């Protein structure tokens, strides 16, 4: 006997496609909870029209959770359009002070704000500490400002220094971006990056290919992993 699915997880475009092609199998009128995670990223990537179309097909009586690392005007507009009497919950992440600081001192790293529907219940109180995240004292953070046309050259120079002595992870914004840099480094490798092993990993690859790429990177003593941030 086939069991009905209780949870549907997907990107806005795919969920809207399923709702259109399998309307008889997916009865949206029975939906009780809607979760919009990383709402600011979804809006930045141009999914507002799909989100509006999805919410238009859902029952008005539902619980909705909208989570966003930032509260932009676009996110607030989405909350006004899709939530009824929303309750805002602010989550602050703190970290122990650096070595040498006073014992018990906390340093605020940032905040993540979310809005829950009127029917939802907020766990904890506003401002209550949600957890403690420790930053390694030996961690070094640096950055370089590079024009778009100079990114590949800068990456090659960086990998020439570090690609054969340690493991390097390079994040790309999209799957196409990862594929582009993987192809570019493969073509430049024999002359400019001898000995540098490069693996690519993103969500559009088959699961078996992704697992093989990750296993290969783990087994390498040094090398490069190109990946999207959700791979």
Description of the structure:
There is one protein chain. This protein has helices spanning 12-21, 39-44, 48-56, 73-82, 151-162, 175-192, 207-219, and strands spanning 33-36, 63-68, 87-96, 106-116, 167-172, 198-201, 223-228. With 231 residues, it is of the alpha/beta class. The protein has two domains: 12-116, P-loop containing nucleotide triphosphate hydrolases (Rossmann fold), CATH 3.40.50.300; 148-228, Rossmann fold. A four-stranded mixed β-sheet has the order 1-2-4-3. A three-stranded parallel β-sheet has the order 5-7-6. The longest helix is centred in the C-terminal third of the chain and has 18 residues, at 175-192. It is elongated. The model is unreliable at 97-131 (pLDDT under 50).
| CATH fold name of the largest domain | Rossmann fold
Overall 3D form: elongated
**Structure classification:** alpha/beta
End-to-end CA span: 34 Å
Q: Going by CATH, what is the homologous superfamily of the largest domain?
A: P-loop containing nucleotide triphosphate hydrolases
What can be said about the biggest beta sheet? 4 strands, mixed
Estimate the mean pLDDT confidence.
78
The tally of beta strands, per DSSP, is 7
- Contiguous runs where pLDDT drops below 50 for at least 5 residues: 97-131
Reading the helices and strands in chain order gives: HEHHEHEEHEHEHE
Summarize the amount of helix as a percent range.
25-40%
